[in-house]
Amino acid sequence: MTISRGDALRAIAQHRDQRIVVSTMQVLRPWHALSPSELNLSCIGFMGGASTLGLGVALAQPERRVVILDGDGSLLMQLGSIATIAGAAPANFCHILFQNGVYETSGSQPIASAEAIDFAQMAKGAGYKAAYSFDDVGRFREEVAGILDEDGPVFVVLKIDQRDEMADWDAPSPSPLAETRTVRKSLTGDK
Amino acid sequence: MPLPAESVPAQTLLDALRRCGVKFIVSVPDTHQKSLLALLDTVHDIRVITCCTEDEAVCVAMGLWIGGAPVAMMIQHAGLYACVNHLRGVGLDLKAPLFMLIGLLGRDVNKAPRDNTGSMVRLAEPLLDTLGIKHYLVDGPEDVRLIEPAYREALNREAPVAVLIGAQTA
After folding, report:
1. What residues does each domain of chain B span?
2. Which value does ipTM take for this structure?
3. Is residue A43 within a helix (H) or strand (E), and if so which, with residue range?
4. CATH code for the structural domain at B10-165
5. Other beta carbons within 10 Å of A115
6. Range with the lowest mean pLDDT among A32-36, A83-87, B37-41, B42-46?
7. Tens digits of residue pLDDT in B95-134
């Protein structure tokens, strides 16, 4: 069983509130369309950097909650980041991984160890406070609000379809540079 | 500063970071600056975030800046080479004021970095030049005065600025 990327994003967006969200790769454009906000950040052009970009924001703004929408190929690019995040132990940090087992943008080549890899176990082993895995959207909808409110760092694996209705989402690409200034201004009042 | 380069006491460098107002150090441990890292472990007004890679350090530093926290990076020249794409994508494209202390481990202190035989030291300044990243060389205690203006320059230009630590810190 797998979850549609769109269903997962809609469930997260429903409970987003004032959370800062860092997204990357194939969830980036649909997320911006579903949850436009002055608190969206994008990781484009430095693959694997979404979670550590969010870590910095979480450390600087401990009263705000930060959510990462990551990809499995992206996380593997910077797998050590789960140890860095666990070591820094931000309580306001929720790391959601969209796992479809492929490098979708480059033609859906399988990621390394696609059949066996267990990201939730790795996150827990690295020192995340909790790790969850979902392949059923009903269960995810029931639990997502509570998970987003948990003290972190928390890790969530969503086993998603390799292709779904959002893969070809026709939404404009955001400006990552402009977003950094907008979020900074929202958080600090500075430009 | 005439050669040979001299070691700078860790306390002198810490004082300079405090004058900048730095509250976070994002580091991939650097043998060349180990006395400063050891000193930082004993203070409570600056938090050290240890990263596994310099790519991560670039992103954490950018996130801290977005969130309004004053930050400096401490890495080694090998790490500079390792994180070129993130320096490009975050430092240049996102105009990140990344302030970096970079240790020139293994440098022959009797020669300018560019004249060193080993590629690790010799290519650091040319690489920064290629990326268009301003850099300054701290070759002794007198050069510590360069640090605070370099930090302000990064913030004002919204661009990465590097301070190369020429001799192992004392």
Report:
1. 10-165
2. 0.96
3. strand A40-43
4. 3.40.50.970
5. 7
6. A32-36
7. 999 999 999 999 999 999 999 999 999 999 999 999 999 9
Contact B94 A177 (CB under 8 A): yes
Number of domains in chain A: 1
- Residue A4, chain B, CB below 8 Å: the answer is no
Q: Decide: B102 and B76 in contact? Cβ < 8 Å.
A: yes
Q: Model confidence over A154-185: pLDDT tens digits?
A: 999 999 988 766 656 667 778 999 999 999 99
- Per-chain mean pLDDT for chain A: 93
Structure tokens at B24: 């976070």
pTM (predicted TM-score): 0.96
For residue B158, what pLDDT band results from cuts at 50, 70 and 90? very high
Average pLDDT over residues B64-85: 97
How far is CA A143 from each of CA A11, A137, A149, A154, A156, rounded to the nearest angstrom?
10, 10, 10, 13, 11
Read off the DSSP letter of residue B33: G
- Can you list the positions of beta strands (E) in chain B? 24-27, 47-50, 71-76, 99-103, 134-138, 161-165
Amino acid occupying residue B164:
L
Tell me the two tokens of residue A96: 């959601």
Residue matched to tokens 């909650």: A65
β-bridge mates for residue B137, sequence order: B164
| Residue A3 DSSP label | B
Of A81, A87, A180, the CB nearest to B66: A180
**Residue A76 C-alpha, separation from nearest chain B C-alpha, in angstroms:** 13
Looking up residue A183, the CATH number of its domain turns out to be 3.40.50.970
Domain range spanning residue A165?
5-188
**B41–A contact, CB cutoff 8 A:** no
Token representation of residue B142: 């007198």
